[in-house]
Amino acid sequence: MNKLRRALAAIITAAAVAGAVRFNQEPGVEKRTGGWKKISNFGI
Amino acid sequence: MLKKEQVVGKKFLILVFRVRALVIGAGAVGTKVSQQLLASNSVDQITIRDISPEKLGTASKALSGRVTVEHFPFSQNMDADVVVIASPRGTQLEAVKNSIRLRRPTVVVSDGLVETVSILKLEEEAFNFKVPVAVGTGFAPGLSCVLAAYGKRMLDEIDEIHVSKMGTGGPACALVHHRALSRSSYGWRENRWDRRLGGSGRELLWFPEPVGPQDCYNASLADPILLHHVFPKVSRISAKMAATRRDRFTAFFPMLTPPHSEGGVGAIRVELRGRKNGVQENIVLGVAERPAVAAASVTALTVEFLLNKKIKTNYMSTLGLMVDPSEFLSELSKRSIDLQIFEGEKTTI
C-alpha cells in the first residue's frame, strides 16, 4: 500500500513540475525568414 | 529668452548667453538626459529636480559640475530656457501645463496612455502661447514615431503601422508597463478607435538581436495616439508589447517585487505596410538598446534640435512631425543608437 502511495505521489509531483515548466515555456520558433541589417546611410 | 550676462571689457561690451535646462525627474532617464546634455555641451547649466531625496542622491553621484540638484515640487518655478519632463506617471500633466503658461519650450518623455492623451489636449493652449512642446520623446513612444516617419519615405503610400516594444527603463517605466497589460489597448482601425483587452492578441514578432523573437500582446500604450497624430490618413495603427505568461497573469495585481533600478536590453520594432510602385510592400525597422539609454539619447537630441531651431513646428507636436527623420536618426546613430532594417521574405511575419 505504501509503495502504491509513493508511486502515486511521485506521479503527481512529476505532473505538477512538468505543468509548471510548460506554463513558463514560450512557443517554439521554427525558422527565420530573414535578418536584421544595420542602416548607416540615411540619405543626407 | 536667454539670460544675458554682461561682461564689460576694456573697449567692448560682450554679451554672454548662458543656456539653462531644467530636468524634472531624477530617475533613470532624467539622469541620463542630464549626462548627455552635459557631454554634448548643448547647455551651460542644468537643474535636475525631484521630490525623492534618494533619487537626487543617486543622480548627484552620477553627475558632475554645472548641475544643480533641487529637492522641489515637480511643476513649480521653471526658470530655464528649456524644460525636460521625465518625471513619473501622474506628475507630467501639471508640469506641462505650467511650462506652457510660462512659455518655456518643453520636451515631455511621456509614457502612460491616459496622461499622454491629457497632455495632447493642451495643444490649443501651446499654439496660442506659441510654445514648442515635443510630446513622446522616449524609446516608444518617441523613437518609434521617428522610425515610422523615416519608413514612410521608403513607401509611396502607407496603409498600416504596427509598433511593438520589449523591455523597460527605470522603475517608473516598469510600473507603467506592468499596468499596461491589464488595461484596455487602443488602436486605430478603419476610421475609429478599436478597444481591445490588454494581454490579448498574441503575436510572435522578431526584434533586432540580441532580443530576437518575442511573444507580443495588446497593451495600453500611447504609440497609436501619437502615430495617428502624425499619420491621420493611415487606416490601421496598433501597438503591442512583449510579455511572458507570468507578466500577463500578474498584471492584474500590484507589483509583488520591486522593479530593477534599470531594465536590461530592450527593443522596438516598427512595421509599415503599404505600396511602392503599385506593389504591396512591408518595411520593418527596429532598434535594440537599453530603453533608458535610448530614451535619454532621443530626449537629449530633441532638446538640441529645439535649441538649435531645427524643429519644423512651433507648437505642441510629436517627434514624427517635429524633426527631419533622416537628420535625427543620423545624429542618433553617431551616439551609438543603431537603426536596423529587417530584410527577408516580403510576407507578414
Keywords:
heterodimer, A: 44 residues, mainly alpha, 1 helix, 52% helix, rod-shaped, B: 349 residues, alpha/beta, nine-stranded mixed sheet, seven-stranded parallel sheet, 30% strand
Name the beta content range of chain A. 5-15%
Per DSSP, the total helix count of chain B is 12
Mean pLDDT of chain B: 87
The major beta sheet of chain B can be summarized as: 9 strands, mixed
User: Could you give the count of β-strands of chain A?
Assistant: 1
Multimeric status of the protein: heterodimer
Largest sheet features of chain A: none
Radius of gyration computed on alpha carbons of chain A: 24 Å
Q: Which stretches of chain A of 5+ consecutive residues score pLDDT under 50?
A: none
Described by the principal axes of the CA atoms, the overall outline of chain B is globular
Q: In sequence order, what are the helices and strands of chain A, one letter per element?
A: HE
Summarize the amount of helix of chain B as a percent range.
Answer: 25-40%
Unreliable segments of chain B (pLDDT under 50, ≥5 consecutive)? 1-10
Distance between the termini of chain A: 81 Å
- Which range does the strand content of chain B fall in? 25-35%
The coarse silhouette of chain A is rod-shaped
Description:
The complex is a heterodimer of chains A (44) and B (349). By secondary structure, chain A is mostly helical. In chain A, 52% of the residues lie in helices and 11% in strands. The mean pLDDT of chain A is 79. The longest helix of chain B has 17 residues. In chain B, 32% of the residues lie in helices and 30% in strands. In chain B, helix 3 runs parallel beside helix 4, helix 6 runs parallel beside helix 8 and helix 6 crosses helix 12. Chain B is globular, with a radius of gyration of 20 Å. The N terminus of chain B is likely disordered. At the A-B interface, strand 1 of A face helix 12 and strand 18 of B. Strand 1 of chain A pairs antiparallel with strand 18 of chain B.
